[in-house]
């Protein structure tokens, strides 16, 4: 297994993994494009040094951890670069998306970074997710970023367990979503 920094050239592979790992396999092509704009495309283009790829021994792309280290920079870029594209694909959908991302600002003082992680099913029993997470946490610590947060569907017990196993604790329970964080210092 090889873990490396993501680049914009990885976008097609990231999108494939995102689809494979999604709970929503019935999306239309337009919905997939919208999901990529909201949850994928920013990171390798604007936060590549804190976003990592997982490659298997055969060189195949098997997962990623996408991490924006700075909430203010993330939201500024979303507004300037991604809002027009999101609104073109799905008019009126940007404001609800921004509201769903408000936890990032809520916890930014102690947990300025936020992440998304996905690993293809065939690599999940290889501790690939934990390896990616540990590599990210090490990188954040080296960069002096004191904490990272995320949101996870509370019904996804296996995912919640994964985060807990990697040192994350619940910052806020919103019923259907748990907001979790982990310090790096």
From TrEMBL:
- N-acetyltransferase domain: residues covered: 1-185
Concerning InterPro entries, the annotation shows: Acyl_CoA_acyltransferase, Bact_Acetyltransf, GNAT_dom
Q: Does the keyword Heme belong to this entry?
A: no
Q: Which GO terms describe its molecular function?
A: acyltransferase activity, transferring groups other than amino-acyl groups
Give the Pfam families listed for this entry.
Acetyltransf_1 (PF00583)
UniProt entry keywords in alphabetical sequence: Acyltransferase, Transferase
What the entry lists under Gene3D superfamilies is as follows: 3.40.630.30
Query: Entry's PANTHER family?
Result: AMINOALKYLPHOSPHONATE N-ACETYLTRANSFERASE-RELATED-RELATED
What protein is this chain from? N-acetyltransferase domain-containing protein
Species, as recorded? Faecalibaculum rodentium
